[in-house]
Amino acid sequence: MKTGIVDVGGGLRGIYAVGILDYCMDQNISFDLGIGVSAGSANLASYLAGQRGRNYQFYTEYAFRRQYMSFHNFIFKRSFVDMDYVYGTLSRADGENPLDYPALRDNPADFLVVATEAETGKAKYFQKSDIRQDDYDIFKASSSIPFACMPYEIAGIPYYDGALSDPVPVEKAFQMGCDRVVVILTKPERQMRTPEKDEKVAARIRKKYPAAADKLCQRARRYNESVALAQQYAAQGRALIIAPDDTCGVDTLKKDKESLLRLYEKGYRDAKKIPDFLRA
């Protein structure tokens, strides 16, 4: 049986998934495939590298630094989140909290990172082979929230957040041969996404990236359809959706340490559904 795990990201709400992945490490639960979107890609990288607690430190400590995310960055670097600080200064081998790239590389699990081509709006599924020691550009590309961040260029192609093109890549996991898939959402499962906020942001990028703007306007519909598809798979016993009953006040870029800790603990508790699902 081939198993997969999907982490949809969600900015700082991603700490919910950190709790789930820490539980998996504590219980020695592994998967054959991981697919990460936006912050979910970095979450899965640390998980596949076996670095328990690494993600937690990024959300509860580093995210509160001005160098990480701030209006200062937005004004002077044109990106609210400084991707080079997060995935370079902090994460490289000589950084403050390096990603264990050899452990990630040697983990037999497949790993996909979803990004969106800014000029075409098409989904790009980067693979583990696209990562090198101290070259974590695919995480930067996958996490570049439109308008809040500039699109991140790889090989001359600008990329935005993977959520524009494939916000909940459960179908991709089954296309990759999975028999069972754990899907981590960072909003309540029954909470429908609405397009109003996305449409406002799309207007900010439409002139330069009209295709990405169109995908942004469609994101709510695609997200809702993908969650509905995951629910169909769950009814068949092929998927397990893990989602918080509430987000404890945490939002994409809203920093509140107490709320983050509560959401992490909620994820850790909710992850206890996984062993029975994988054994069934």
Description:
The radius of gyration is 17 Å and the shape is globular. Strands 1, 2, 3, 4, 5, 6, 7 and 8 form an eight-stranded mixed sheet that branches. With 280 residues, the chain is of the alpha/beta class. Helix content is 42%, strand content 14%.
Topology of helices and strands:
Layout: E1 3-7, H1 15-26, E2 33-37, H2 39-48, H3 54-60, H4 71-77, H5 83-89, H6 101-106, E3 110-117, E4 123-127, H7 137-142, E5 152-154, E6 157-161, H8 170-175, E7 180-184, H9 196-205, H10 210-235, E8 239-242, H11 257-270, H12 274-279
Parallel strand pairs: 1-2, 1-7, 2-3, 7-8
Antiparallel strand pairs: 3-4, 3-6, 5-6
Strand content: 5-15%
Poorly predicted residue ranges: none
Computed Rg: 17 Å
What separation lies between the terminal Cα atoms? Answer: 11 Å
Helix and strand content put the structural class at: alpha/beta
Q: What average pLDDT do the residues reach?
A: 96
Task: Describe the structure using short key phrases.
single chain; 280 residues; alpha/beta; 12 helices; globular
Short note summarizing the structure:
It contains twelve helices and eight strands.
